[in-house]
Structures are given as structure tokens and as C-alpha cells.
Amino acid sequence: MKKNFYLRSALSVILLMHSVVSIFSGDVNDFGRHYLDTIGFSPFGIYLAWAVKLIHLFSVFLIWSDRYVKIVSFLNMPILFLGIYLVHWQNGWYVVGGGANGIEFNVLLICCFLQLIFTESHSEKIEKRSS
Q1: Is 72 exposed, middle or buried, given 0-12, 13-18 or 19+ CB atoms closer than 10 A?
Q2: Does the keyword Membrane apply (predicted)?
Q3: Residue 99 pLDDT
């Protein structure tokens, strides 16, 4: 069984829902045009928004297949840090309860990706044995 099965499953579901729902609802376009473009990323806001969602979407399949997990983690963490800086920081720590739309969820996701980076994968063990 893969290491960090539950962690990988949870990250996969979160990334899948965060990407697919916003793609099909059109929110990714709105975020690019109405938010990113207005804070200085114009005319690239929509492209950045799509890049983020596609990275999330492809990350799901790579995490499930136990391939390039460290690269996936390194790609997603800057997205989450930028989300903290650009969107969530002004709202404080709490996502719900003591506030709304805060940074706590992004911090947890960053820690989950760090766990994947510092946990040796099954494929890495096989490569070490064969060397």
C-alpha cells in the first residue's frame, strides 16, 4: 500500500473539487478577469487562473499514480502561498468560526505537501534497491 494513503486521498479530493467545480462553474474565468487582472496581472490574469486550476487537476492524477509527487508538491505550494498573500491574509487565520476565508486551510495544505516531499515514495525505494 502506498505511504500516506489517507493524506494523498484527501489532497486529491480537495484539489479535484477545487479545480473541477470552478472550471465548470466558470469561476476560474471570473477569478482571472475580475480579480487577478484588477490587482496587476492584466492581461495575464485569466491565463494564471487557468494555469493554477490545471496544475491542481493534473496533480490529482499524479498523486493517485504515485508519480512526480515531489514536483506536484513544489508546484502547488507556491500557489497556496500566493493564495495566502493575495486572497486570504487580510481575512485572518480562520476559514470559519472565528472569521471567514482565512489562511488556516492553505497552511494545512502546505503542511500536507511538505509531508509528501519528505516521505520517501515507493518508487524511490525501488530505485534505491536496484542501484
Answers
A1: buried
A2: yes
A3: 86
- Measured at the CA of 50, the angle between CA 57 and CA 80, to 5 degrees, comes to 70
Percent of the chain that is helix, strand, coil (3-state, to 5): 75, 0, 25
pLDDT for residue 14: 97
Q: Each residue of 29-77: pLDDT tens digit? A: 999 999 999 999 999 999 999 999 999 999 999 999 999 999 999 999 9
What does pTM read for this prediction?
A: 0.88
Q: How far apart are CA 31 and CA 53, in angstroms?
A: 11
Query: All 3 cell numbers of residue 89?
Result: 491574509
- Amino acid, single-letter form, for residue 42: S
Which candidate, 83, 73, 77, 78, places its Cα nearest to that of 36? 83
The candidate with the shortest Cα–Cα distance to 32, out of 18, 47, 19, 53, is 47
